[in-house]
Amino acid sequence: MNVFSKVTAALSLSVISFASFATSPDFPHLATTGYGEVVAKPDMAQFSVKVVDSTMTAEQAKQSVDSSVTAFLKALSDEGVESDDIASSNLYITPQYHYPKKGKPELVGYRASRSITVTVDELADLNRYLDLALNSGINQVDNIQLKVKDQATYQQQARLEAIKDANSKAESLAKGFGKEINGVWRIDYNMSGSQPILMRSMAMDARTESNSYQDSSIVIRDRVDVIYKLD
């Protein structure tokens, strides 16, 4: 897997055009962009599911959806999931119409839906919680996002790699043009963040074993833009 993006760097002895910097120095200088990334194993997750039902009346649709949501919330509580790790949306009900080629639209029923987002502290529990959703009548998975608990530590590691990358390229470029680095004039920091593993719009019957989640990876990236002074 290609873990680093292509590097762009410019060398100038007068004025340089570099989008990351609002102004350019009026002395010999060199600008580089450093990239760093760390590959981490996910140890937690967050997933969003939805229950959707269409019936002849709004009340029937509401009752059906609320029943599935209540059953799922109880199942999560029985598993020891804290209420702070669960977020549920309001109930949405919309009328459904049939549009004939001629004549007025005809009301044919109502569609109700509710969403639930669950934070999973232990990745090994993810598949079991998805099973609970299926058994409770939830019929749609909107999003599964794998995460790491210690995001800040991995981000710091990626940042240090970006700094090393910027310095290494600057030294190589300066040497190649017969110059020497004489300090740093400006640093612009733009945190790139992580690239989580996402699984969207999965059907509930498309079962995935939990081991496949644990075998996945998360790429956490960072970058830094630097202008160095040259002798």
TrEMBL record:
Alphabetic keyword roster: Signal
Signal peptide region: 1-22
Highest taxon of source: Bacteria
Any one biological process term the GO annotation gives: DNA damage response
Pfam (any one): SIMPL
Stored InterPro entries: 26kDa_periplasmic_antigen (IPR052022), SIMPL/DUF541 (IPR007497)
UniProt protein name: Oxidative stress defense protein
Organism whose genome encodes this protein: Vibrio ouci
